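Quick question, first post here. What does this chain look like in 3D?
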Amino acid sequence: MNKPILHIGLDVHAQAIAIAVAEAGSEARLYGSISSDLHSVDKFLAKVRKAHPEAQLRFCYEAGPTGFVLQRHFSRKGIECLVAAPSLIPSRSGDRVKTDKRDAVKLARLLRAGELTGVHVPDAVDEAMRDLCRARTDAVQERRRQRSQLKAFLLRNGYRYQGKTSWNEKHLSYLRSLTLAHPAQRAVLDDTLQALQAAEARIARLEESMEALLADWHMRPMVGALLGMRGFALICAMVIGSELCGAWRFEHPRQLMAFLGLVPTETSSGTKRKQGGISKTGNCHARWIMIEASHHYRLEPGVNPQLSRRQEGLSEEVKACAWKAQTRLHKRLKQLLARGKHRNKAQVAVARELTGFVWQIFRLMEGRMKKADGQQTAESGVKQSAGT
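> Answer (accepted):
Ran it through. Tokens below.
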């Protein structure tokens, strides 16, 4: 006979977890609250298993700032745990009371009804590489803010650099040689220049770490395949690889486009159809990278020496996909601009189609990636056996 299933909803916060249980044939009920540390979670598991020795446990909680630590903890114990997408959780329009206890009961009830949609839980290594790539992006954005603040400060004091290129050695020498009216202003300038130097060093350190860790990352073949496309340098390819790891899980490229928020919004009723701007939902970091990469397709199709070196060792299928992307997207951009479309809108449309080619690259590399993952798992199992 099939084991009874016990559906458990968790409302997870930094300090505490509210728990609700939904058994078959009864209303979901509040179980209580525990501390959010894993030791308390294990004590709760032991208590539930003792009270329901024949039941199969199924957990769920909302995706949020607490990450996937809890889900991975349950997976190591062989327990099913769904991380629900918050934006896809059904809600009643008349429900105006929201508490942790109510949320836990609601999650348990919806889990039992099968109305929750889970998010993709990345591998721990992929998530670590994603954190590294995002840290590099944060460092670049911090440098951009400091540069903007310094330019605004100098403009307020009547200084404006007349050179053609900013932030090269000539520009930095000009900044160091400025004579300001008050020592306080000189202190601001010196401190900002030191902060910019520290930001440059931080970016360089993070990029060195990315290149060093790429050699042992199982997504390295995927990164190499993305490098064969125009607009994807090493940093860009690693960001896309870490953000979209396992993108072959999407059955159609339109699903990946929607995941990146590159599809237009729509409000249609009856015979009327109205489309708006892109939805901007999902992964904003990957969406930004795709739009930045799409700007390279304004150039005439061709394979320059840099791209040719990046394509060395790639399969003919990947090279053909990269060439098709160049010819199609360049033609598409010219057509949109000729129709009078705003350049930014045309560029986003090209980025949406570029996402389809990236999905195709992931599909072409799917078998090789899964084979590499299987070999890596087998090797880790052999090492563990040898250690024991």
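The chain has three domains: 5-113, 124-214, 220-366.
The chain is about 55% helix and 10% strand.
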